[in-house]
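Mods, move this if it's the wrong board.
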Amino acid sequence: MRGRRGNGVLVSIGSVSDAQPAAPLTGGWGVDSTTGPSEDRVQWFQQQFGALLANLEVAIQGKRDVLVDVLTCLLSEGHLLLEDVPGVGKTSIARSLAASIHGSWARVQFTPDLLPSDVVGTTVYRQAAEQFEFHPGPVFHNLVIADEINRSSPKTQSALLEVMGERQVSVDGHTRPVPRPFMVVATQNPIDLAGTYRLPEAQTDRFLMRVSVGYPDPIDEAAILATHGAASPVEGLGAVTSVGDVQAMIGVAEAIAVEPSIQQYIVALAHATRNDPRLRLGVSPRGTLAIQRAARTRAAAWGRTYVSPDDIKHLAHSVWAHRLVLTTEADLDAMSAGTIITDILNRTPVALGQGAGT
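Not the wrong board. Structure tokens:
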């Protein structure tokens, strides 16, 4: 397969069908977690990642870094919070991702009158059959778009907690697993606070990443005007991979090697957030596990069989910033979680080991 590289990620020019077929979906997804994935499997991962990225860029222009983070989140089996002002493409990104994988998806518009049963499902008594019947909610899909999640009540928001953390739903004493892979892509507007409910820390911590889309630059915005006709490019977007291939890619990423020195670097950064006087709440162990998962995926996307310190540095803001809670004094001084993370990265020594600085 011919290809070109963009920011280190192989972007396929040929059809995704030119890539090597996925290994049989058996235990370990075709890789040995003790020795790591083979070079061939990592190359296959990189090709598939590139094909997905190229497909997303058909509909979403000028946002490659954002799209790389979105795919990294999916292939790390994480959930994504897209936070930005209205009209920058948050929902379009989520819809494009859903269209790119050959799996089921559902969109839920979160409103003040939305009930928890509207999200997870409900049990209905069928008199003719004299039995209860479960009607599954939209969470029983591979990808769930939770649009404007902060417009629903905390009770409805909390309905997502179990399924995001455990990938299962408990209704009327029965526990039901959701399909795999499973991902929640939530959008929220941080500016318009009227009629919104702040997401609790317990829920924001469930999101692997928080990503801001931002405005396009003038060249990309002109290209958007030129390519958007009567129909949005999202409408004609087709799938370039299967659910089985997505699961196989997740397995390859899980087997990427993480040296003890890299793990010590992660721990040092996390402890620095917990001891920073500007923070009331630092990174939890869930946060350290999250950045390790995401770093494995990023390494595979760059064609490496190991995690480097640069993977951790690149992901620290998107994986950790939304987990930090600033003190009142830091808030009054107009500090931000991103600024504090940058300070911690600058003063924490980089781990030395395989691939350091790559």
